[in-house]
Amino acid sequence: MPPQYIPVLIFAVLAAAFPAVTLLIFALIRPSTGAIGAKLKPYECGIAPEGDARGRYSVRFYIVAILFVIFDVETVFLFPWAVDYRLLGIYGLISMFVFLGILIVGYVWLYRKGALEWV
Amino acid sequence: MTNEILFYFFAGLAVLGGVLVVTMRNAVHSAVFLITTLLATAGLYLTLNAEFLFVVQIILYVGGIMVLFVFVIMLVNLDVALHQVQFNRQTWVAGLLSFALLAELLAAVALARSYGEENWLFAAPHVPTVTAEGNTEQIGRLLFQNYVIPFEIASILLLVALVGAVVMGKKRI
What we know:
The complex is a heterodimer. By secondary structure, chain A is mainly α. Chain A has three helices and no strands. Chain A is flat. Chain A starts with 5 loop residues before the first helix and ends in a 6-residue tail after the last helix. The model of chain A has no long low-confidence stretch (mean pLDDT 84). By secondary structure, chain B is an all-alpha fold. The mean pLDDT of chain B is 84. Chain B has two domains: 2-133, NADH-ubiquinone/plastoquinone oxidoreductase chain 6, subunit NuoJ (Four Helix Bundle (Hemerythrin (Met), subunit A)), CATH 1.20.120; 134-173. In chain B, 17% of the residues are buried. The chains are: A mainly alpha, B mainly alpha. The interface between A and B is large, with 47 and 50 residues.
């Protein structure tokens, strides 16, 4: 592992430890009597939930998800470009603008087709 | 030494996550453990000094592919799957075959070790040395100086995927 990633490792260990320690401490200090009935209902927190949260979603969300993945792949190309930006200079800037230009054609097309409209 | 500890930690985490993905009843829980496995694999890439692959693994697999997985889980009706039998009756046959495969692999590794460390198939992976110029810088230089045309063509591939997604997802174009 490259030595400059040691802070990332420490951060990951802390991020994993934080919820574990929190859950452990709260398991120790909370009262253990089993709550029943109305005690489990949300108090003054809006309408009581109805049904299951795992219901089926509209297919329209799927278009948004796929478009997100496509622009995510675009980010992967942007990342080494941003790292090497100074080294590549104006030549890298132009080639990235051509790359983005082709994708923006697609974005304008889907925007005008109304693919992101909600009805 | 530290690298070995990290390798075994991430490898163990990946295998543990993979086992939990298959055994969890709830598909959403499976997806969460798949994220664990993918992150552990990203850690393995980092122990091999492949920083770019590490970042791509997190951006694309943990970010993008998992979004698709979770959306598929949300789109299908899971209540049916919850009431079905999760494992079939061939557990013993499958377990026996798996152990036979494991024994075979262990025997192959042991045999290769007896021929010496330099054996090409089972030698320890060659870890590239860390250069002053990082892995990502090298890939960026190569991509934008030697392979500009394939890079621009990749954007056309993405454009095709974008148009295809909209055409298939929309009722009326």
